[in-house]
Structure formats: C-alpha cells, structure tokens
Amino acid sequence: MPLDLPPDEAATLRRGEGPAVQIDLIQTMIFHAAVAALRLGVFSALERGPRELGALAGELAVDEANLRALLRLLVTGGYLAEGEDGYERTPAGAWLAGPDDGFGAVLDFWHSLIGGLWQGLEETVRTGKPQRDFYAWLQERPDVLTGFQGVQLRIAEWLEEEVLELAGPPGEPARLLDLGGGHARYSLAYCRRHPGLSATVLDLPEALEPGRAAVEAAGLAERFTFLPGDLRTAEAPGGQDVVLLFNVLHGFPADTARALVGRAAGALRPGGRLIVMETLPDPVGSVREEAFTRGFDLNLIHTQGGRLHPVETIAGWMEAAGCGSVERRDLTRSAAFCLLVADREG
C-alpha cells in the first residue's frame, strides 16, 4: 500500500523539491517483498495472531535474519505491524493470505506477469508492436496459467449474479454460445437459470479444462459442448439464441476485435441476442480503479497487441454486424465493467 508519508515530506515531493520517483522505487521493493511473503506463507501464518520472529522463522523453515529484513520492509509498507508480541498483520495485510487465495492470487499473478513480460515496453511504444506473446508465455508456465485462470474465475464468480439480472437471453432460449469463456462460469449460470438451455463453449484447448471440471461437478455435462479452437479462425456453430463475448475483445487489436464481433453476431439466429462484457477505458469509480485500468490497458498493448476499446466503438461494430439498437448496462459491483446488449435483426 502507499507509504504513509508525514505531511511535510509529502508536500516536499508534490512541490518537486525531492525525487518523487523514489517512492515508486520503494513501492516496487515492497511489492516484491509482499509477494515473497505470500509464497513463504508469512501472511497465512499470521492469521492466527502475532508471532515472535524466531518462532515464525522456525515454522516457515527460513533464515531468521533474512526474515527479519523482509518483515521490516513489510512494516514500512503497511502490511505488518511490530509490537511486544511480535509481528502481526495490519488491516491492509489481512487482504493477503497465500498465493492461491483471494487477492493474494491476484498479486502473485501480476508479479509474475510484470516481472516476466514488461521488459521492452519502450520498444512496444516506439514500434506499435507487442514484444511478447502473452498466451505463449503462459503455456510455458503451467503454474502461472493456473493462477491466471483462477483470477478470471473469481471475477466471474463476483459478477455473474448481476450479469444475469442485467442481461438475460431473449424468451426461453435453447442454444447459447460462449466465445472465450473457458471457465464456463457464465454459461453455467445461464444454464442454471434456464433449464431448457444448452451451451457450447469455444476456447483454446488448455483454457477449456477448468470449464469441463466445473460442468462435471455441477452435474450438467449433458447440456454442454466444449469446442477447442482459436476464436479468430475456428468455425462457430450457428443458429444460436444467445452469444456471450465476455472479456475477450480487449485481447485483440481493433481490426481483429471487430471481425470477432462480426463472427459472434453471425452465429445468432434472427432475433438472437449478442451480449458483450468489457472493461471500460475510463471507469467512473475510484482513483484506484482508474489507475489500475490505465495500467491494464498498457499491459494489453505490450503483451497482446490488444487494448481497451471504447464502448461506442464496440457498439458500432455490433450494429455494423447486423444487430439492432445497442443498450449499455453498467455493473454496480465493479465500475470497471459494462455490458452491451443487442439483438440480431432479421
């Protein structure tokens, strides 16, 4: 979390009388320290209350002197506090347990991503071309891929109820196509809501495994078909009552994203519904959400050649693909997301 600077120090930096960028350097060190603590089990060990340094080092099987240096930096960063009973988590540290749990999983994934792929950012800006292939990089790192899939699943779990309320299918649908929804969380939610609905999920082969497992666990395997393929080239089955295109378009440059919207609309029957969910380039929310969104946009540009496309642009693509009037429906659970809903004409 941000350093809690005394007012006089903060004012000095705001006036340009000191190197404010030093704070960014310190925060980078704290970021690395927090992830190291996650992976070592520091935060989960402190869930049970304060721990003395020696006891904590013994429990974690780490070097005591080095652990002390790590913990002191986390105290500086506001994640831990040191008192008579040893070290304990602060309210900020309580958000972190382990690299596979809650926001700790998010932090762990972004640490791997930024550390592994953000080199050469200046070349991306200079040339207009991404320097790395995000999905190829993921395939070489199964643990990071699992973490990425977990983050996507948690987002879906948080949003799915509101999504269903804001963007239902037309009438009593029979066929749903989920493009790029490998974890199948949204298509499962729609199928639970509509007993007569069957779903087809099209995504990269490795992305489909979590969805298959989830569908089996839900006892709905007979209502699902999983199609491995690249969204840019795979043939999508037609005659759909509803097509979902959730958190997909930002992974592609504009020409590819527009073509994908056209393919999605083309898979609908006349009167079928296209539902798109995307991250807003300029969310109306907190400063924190706005700041993260700007960093996310730059990450997409650098690692995938994608970007956050303006809502008006996506709506135009939908209409050009044969959809009628497009309705925008903003989510309240996260100001960063919105839904675009339109029915195919004809």
TrEMBL record:
Positions of the O-methyltransferase C-terminal domain: 174-321
Cleaved signal peptide residues: none
Keyword Ribosomal protein: no
Any one biological process term the GO annotation gives: methylation
Gene3D superfamilies assigned to the protein according to its UniProt record, in alphabetical order: Vaccinia Virus protein VP39, Winged helix-like DNA-binding domain superfamily/Winged helix DNA-binding domain
Assigned keywords, A-Z: Methyltransferase, S-adenosyl-L-methionine, Transferase
Highest rank taxon of the organism: Bacteria
Entry's Gene Ontology molecular function annotations: O-methyltransferase activity; protein dimerization activity
InterPro entries per UniProt: COMT-like (IPR016461), COMT_C (IPR001077), COMT_dimerisation (IPR012967), SAM-dependent_MTases_sf (IPR029063), WH-like_DNA-bd_sf (IPR036388), WH_DNA-bd_sf (IPR036390)
Limits of the O-methyltransferase dimerisation domain: 29-97
Name of the featured protein: SAM-dependent methyltransferase
